[in-house]
Amino acid sequence: MSESDENRLAAALARLDAAGDVSEVEAVRIDALGKQGWISQALKTLGTMDPEARAAAAPRIQALRAELSDAIAAKKDALEAAELSARLAAETIDLTLPAPEAPRGTIHPVSQVMDELAEIFADMGFAVATGPEIEDGWHNFTALNMPESHPARAMHDTFYFPDRNAAGEEMLLRTHTSPVQIRAMQEQGAPLRIIAPGRVYRSDSDATHTPMFHQIEGLVIDKGIHLGHLKWTLETFLRAFFERDDVTLRLRPSYFPFTEPSVEVDVGYSLVNGKRVIGGSEGWMEVLGSGMVNRRVIAAAGLDPDEWQGFAFGTGVDRLAMLKYGMDDLRAFFDGDVRWLAHYGFAALDVPTLSAGVGVAA
Ligand code: DAH
After folding, report:
1. Is residue 289 lining ligand 1, measured as CB closer than 6 Å?
2. CATH architecture of 108-347
3. Ligand 1 midpoint to CA 159 (Å)
């Protein structure tokens, strides 16, 4: 132990005192207490001393080591505490400030239109019913008056599953929302007033067809229901949906296996600056299929067709959205392109209400 060790300790303490970060503190530690450090070296010399000299030197060297180790630990703590308070000060959040602008999602036009439809029909006393997207052939076809030999069955471009179900029924992705008519009558009986929006599937793809698309079905079952009820309901629905009182309808005789008689419904449009605008009667666009529910369908669902009658309708939700909000390519609906969604999407809080107008968000 020598005078120079005392000086070296003083120098190390001074260097520590001035250290501005943890790496400088570490340099002081290595310099003194590392393998080659001067205190470590001094400790090694103890072994070479005779007993009296060692007894005199050892406590002094140990004391030096203890003093420096304590100082290093204290300095590290102090630096870390300072760093933490600086970070806490820098990361303060003023909760009274407005939230920063952040990217926000939008409501897809299909969801928006489904909400609008539910709102319009709820006002007329319709409840929302659902059914499975993986359906059996009986609900999707047979009960809707399309037995296995029926040509309409082949026209649906159905996606079939390879295996039949336990009851021997062929399984498929539903090709329309009409099977929900059957399920609703079976589950709820009559009288009944439901709409059934949802996904449907057909093996078809071009600018106006996608393998998955959306339909909405309507069904009313009651006593003494006739075509007049159907016409009034569709007129009221389409006027509310397009938000125009001058929506004109044209009912054309048609054919669907599940309705008798069947009607196809066109809405009139006018041309304004070359664009089609709903209202007037310069031209006609087909918007939905409908009719009086076929007696066989009512019977298949377990009700007595002599007691209960009704009407049904079905239409494409995507197509209604395109007509109302002016999109022209159906495929863009399902591309998930954020630019399209930002342009055509709706703000999350634009809840459609009839009083405020369902299209106010447009
Ligand atoms: N299910 C028919 C389709 O997918 C649409 C339809 C037509 C539904 C007439 C009905 C209806 O309820 O009465 O093309």
Report:
1. yes
2. 2-Layer Sandwich (3.30)
3. 18
Residue 362 has pLDDT above 60, yes or no: no
**Per-residue pLDDT tens digits for 3-35:** 688 888 999 999 999 998 888 999 999 999 999
* Mutational test site, ligand 1, from 255, 290, 298, 319, max ligand atoms within 8 Å of CB: 290
- Give the domain ranges of the chain: 3-90, 108-347
Give the long-range contacts of residues 328-332, CB within 8 A, separation 24 or more. 329/207, 330/207, 330/208, 330/209, 330/210, 330/213, 331/207, 331/210
The reported pLDDT for the residue numbered 272 is 87
CA angle 154, 157, 163 (to 5 degrees): 85
**What pTM did the predictor assign?**
0.71
Question: What does 165-193 look like in DSSP terms, one character per residue?
Answer: -TTS-EEEE-SSSTHHHHHHHHHH-SSEE
Q: How far is the CA of 75 from the centre of ligand 1 (A)?
A: 80
